[in-house]
Design brief:
There is one protein chain. Helix 2 runs antiparallel to helix 3, helix 2 packs parallel to helix 4 and helix 3 runs antiparallel to helix 4. With about 130 residues, this protein is an all-alpha fold. The longest helix has 27 residues. It is elongated. Helices cover about 75% and strands about 0% of the residues. It has one domain.
């Protein structure tokens, strides 16, 4: 049970650490507005969405790789948790203006398919078994 939880938590850490790390670099380079200011530029939001999708695919791969057995089951559990967090993000964005509402909706909608794709890439690599 501990290794299963670790696999799912590791997948979330991949998303959080890499997403916030890239965000920070883009803030320091002044590509993004300063922290705390809303980001309404559609191009910048599309940029953030694009690397978050790639990172979420990587997250699914990491989760599947670390799962002790049934890697896709672990990926699906992580995907459902991520979907619930994404929906919570949409609700929060409706209350606090942080940018265009399409961005958190896109994060919520693309999260599950992206993490699933990462898990499938691992499964298809010949190293994983699907559940």
């Amino acid at each position: 049970m501990g290794r299963s939880v670790l696999a799912i938590v590791a997948g979330f850490f991949v998303v959080v650490i890499l997403s916030l790390g890239i965000d920070e670099v883009l803030h320091l380079l002044k590509v993004y507005p300063p922290w705390g200011e809303p980001m309404y530029d559609p191009g910048l939001n599309a940029l953030a969405l694009s690397y978050r999708i790639v990172i979420t695919v990587l997250s699914g791969y990491v989760t599947a790789r670390l799962a002790p057995r049934n890697p896709m089951r672990h990926v699906l559990v992580g995907g459902v948790i991520g979907l619930l967090l994404g929906v919570a993000g949409v609700v929060g964005a409706m209350k606090i203006p942080v940018g265009p509402i399409w961005y958190p909706i896109a994060i919520a909608v693309t999260g599950f398919p992206s993490v699933w794709l990462g898990g499938m890439l691992y499964a298809r690599s010949g190293r994983g078994r699907t559940a």
